[in-house]
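How a chain folds remains the central question behind the approach discussed here. In the encoding step, the backbone of a single protein was reduced to a row of integers, each denoting a local shape. We regard such an encoding as a compact summary of how the chain folds. The sequence in question and its structure tokens are set out directly beneath this paragraph:

___
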Amino acid sequence: MLRLLIALCFIGPINKAAWLIGTWERETSKGTIYESWKRESSNELSGKSYMLKGKDTLIFETIRLTAEQHQLYYIPTVKNQNNGQPVRFALTKISDKQLVFENSEHDFPQIITYRKLDADSLIAEISGMVDGRLRKEIFPMRRVH
């Protein structure tokens, strides 16, 4: 019974993040960037950020959103950063419309936020301190699938 209760505690946050599932896009001066999310299991979502160049897919980052060790983690692996190693960001805030993950030890970002505006739009944000100043990057996206 205790295992079931523990499992439900972590499946709940994954289910609250299910609105991420699908493909999102944002236009940039360099082209359209996509972020796609899918459910891998009852306690894990996987995502990737990429750009299409002709027939090629250029992957920038892969992401695991997973419940482990009594915590929900956002775990990106970013091309050409951190020696190709994943970085863990722990969930610090969750609601039906917002997910906030933090890792105060990471250089930048220290905070990753997803905010659902409506069924077909969201804002992703990365933020943190760099050289004693707050740096923030905002990425509005719209659902395409």
